[in-house]
């Protein structure tokens, strides 16, 4: 286990919204200027803090969707009906508005070209990404970064989305990506349909004997199910890293 | 000197609850899950619990031996660093005081270690004098694997990552040694009332 201690203080930073763009019918891309940002690694997240007039505050975590090379910080936020924070971020916030955030947070759910550089290209363990819904966000940072850095590490993304319109990151997804749609496919759809189950994982991800480094991100139930299946298929537990976004279906 | 977010207001329960530490919300009946890797499934026959490290007499208990130790029931509020809190959770298990009683502890801290390689560090003061347990029962039922079963540490006065799931023992250490999340920048102690989420808080 890496012992790279990240022992520095995380202070709240002022972030100014530069753009609030539709990424899909349910997800907005929030683009921030954060003057005091000290950089991040692909896979890390920020904590966002909102403060009401009466002093009430709410904090939530959001993965960073942009690579370290991008001077602006991109978040992909799903508008959850009835939610306290996500509807505010997606519907209320306009360019020029400020909020507070701090980060980068999390040093475990990370894949960066710099971390790979120490290992000769032909000895690198491949990277397998598995996303559910908005869980694609940190993987867009990883893919974008790997591409810009010219990282030759073999990588695949298996990405479960509801419909074709819900797929995030459009242009960034290349031949490494297999999308599966869980709520029906449009005419002419050439990807997969149905949930990420054992058969799909066997068919569309690196096998255990390729010793991939596996990252799974999305709603808690999705992550839990996929992780269990991967271990059943023979992946070492220590090779599987998880990021859970939460969600109504949490096991009670 | 917080920045006020124009038009933002509380959407959760309007009453402030003095059981809620700063920055937390009440998750109600839900019990969210957080861990860095897949859930291990260790059968009782392969499970044991150890106290080792800076002790005069290392200890181990098989599952049956552990189940035969004096048990306590606790009802406590728990607080996760991912912002949810859950009130009045009911657990049963063995006090850490009981586990350390015959070990002859010589160090100042413990590093809890778990199946799957997870570790977390705690000062001895935070796990003794009735402040910590190894629990195997939640709400009257065997603790489910996704919540740390067969047994987890329970240190309710600290953020819940300190309550190591799938715990297999306590290593007594002569000084503070950062555990898993602590190495990645999470706070060494993790007191929710002081909002000690990350290193330096
Ligand atoms: C490390 C981490 C990274 C995250 N990254 C992202 C990200 O990149 N993009 C993103 O959109 N979210 C992300 N999340 C989730 C995010 O932090 C919030 O939980 C989410 O935006 C809901 O907040 P809210 O205040 O709108 O809803 P709340 O008021 O907290 O909840 C409202 C309702 O929505 C349900 N709900 C809460 N979270 C989810 C969920 N994830 N999916 C479905 N239902 C839910 C609740 O059960 C509740 O019924 C991340 C969470 C973590 C822990």
Question: What does this 3D model show about the protein?
Answer:
Chain B: Residues 1-39 are annotated as: Disordered. Chain B: It comes from Geodermatophilus obscurus. Chain B: InterPro entries: OxRdtase_Mopterin-bd_dom, OxRdtase_Mopterin-bd_sf. The complex is a heterodimer of chains A (252) and B (201). With 252 residues, chain A is α/β, with parallel strands linked by helices. In chain A, 18% of the residues lie in helices and 30% in strands. Chain A is built from 5 helices and 12 strands. In chain A, strands 4-3-6-1-2-5 form a 6-stranded antiparallel sheet. A 6-stranded parallel sheet of chain A has the order 10-9-8-7-11-12, sandwiched between helices. Residues 1-7 of chain A have low confidence and may be disordered. Chain B has helices at 63-67, 96-100, 124-127, 180-183; strands at 25-26, 48-53, 59-62, 72-79, 84-95, 109-114, 119-123, 133-138, 141-142, 152-154, 167-173. The mean pLDDT of chain B is 93. Chain B is built from 4 helices and 11 strands, in the order βββαββαββαββββα. With 201 residues, chain B is mainly β. In chain B, the strands form 2 sheets. In chain B, strands 1, 4, 5, 8, 9 and 10 form a 6-stranded mixed sheet that branches. Chain B has a 5-stranded mixed sheet with strand order 3-2-11-6-7. Chains A and B meet through β3, β4, β6, α5 and β12 of A and loops of B. Residues 45, 60-63, 76-78, 80, 82-86, 134, 137, 219, 243, 245-248 of chain A line the site of flavin-adenine dinucleotide (FAD). Flavin-adenine dinucleotide (FAD) binds at residues 45, 60-63, 76-78, 80, 82-86, 134, 137, 219, 243, 245-248 of chain A.
């Amino acid at each position: 286990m890496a012992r790279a201690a990240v022992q520095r203080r995380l202070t709240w930073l002022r972030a100014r919204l530069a753009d609030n763009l539709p990424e899909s019918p349910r997800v907005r891309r929030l683009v921030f200027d954060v003057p005091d940002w000290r950089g991040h690694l692909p896979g890390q997240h920020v904590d966002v803090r909102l403060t009401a007039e009466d002093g009430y505050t709410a904090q939530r975590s959001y993965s960073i969707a942009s690579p370290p090379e991008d001077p602006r910080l991109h978040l992909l936020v799903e508008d959850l009906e009835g939610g306290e924070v996500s509807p505010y971020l997606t519907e209320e916030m306009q360019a020029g508005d400020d909020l507070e955030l701090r980060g980068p947070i999390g040093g475990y759910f990370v894949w960066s070209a710099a971390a790979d550089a120490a290992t000769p290209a032909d000895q690198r363990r491949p990277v397998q990404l598995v996303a559910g819904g908005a869980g694609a966000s940190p993987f867009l940072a990883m893919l974008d970064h790997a591409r810009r850095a010219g990282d030759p590490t073999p990588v695949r993304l298996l990405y479960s989305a509801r419909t074709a319109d819900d797929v995030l990151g459009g242009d960034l997804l290349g031949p490494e990506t297999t999308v599966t749609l869980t709520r029906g496919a449009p005419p002419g759809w050439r990807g997969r349909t149905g949930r990420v189950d054992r058969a799909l994982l066997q068919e569309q991800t690196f096998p255990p004997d390729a010793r991939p480094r596996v990252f799974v991100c999305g709603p808690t139930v999705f992550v839990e199910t996929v992780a269990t299946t991967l271990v059943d298929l023979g992946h070492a537990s220590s090779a599987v890293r998880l990021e859970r976004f939460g969600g109504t279906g949490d096991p009670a | 000197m917080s920045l006020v977010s124009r038009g933002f207001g509380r959407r959760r329960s309007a009453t402030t609850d003095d059981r809620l530490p700063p920055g937390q919300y009440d998750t109600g009946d839900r019990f969210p899950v957080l861990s860095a890797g897949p859930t291990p499934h260790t059968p009782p026959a392969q499970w044991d619990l150890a106290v080792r490290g800076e002790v005069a007499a290392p200890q181990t208990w098989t599952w049956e031996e552990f189940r035969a130790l004096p048990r306590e029931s606790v009802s406590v509020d728990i607080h996760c660093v991912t912002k949810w809190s859950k009130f009045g959770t009911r657990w049963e298990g063995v006090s850490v005081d009981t586990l350390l009683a015959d070990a002859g502890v010589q160090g100042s801290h413990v590093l809890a270690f778990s199946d799957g390689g997870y570790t977390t560090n705690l000062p001895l003061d935070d796990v003794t004098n009735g402040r910590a347990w190894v629990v195997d029962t939640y709400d009257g039922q065997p603790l489910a694997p996704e919540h740390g079963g067969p047994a987890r540490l329970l240190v309710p006065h600290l953020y819940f990552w300190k309550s190591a799931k799938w715990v297999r023992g306590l290593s007594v250490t002569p000084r503070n040694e950062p555990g898993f999340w602590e190495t990645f920048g999470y706070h060494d102690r993790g007191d929710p009332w002081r909002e000690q989420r990350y290193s330096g808080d």
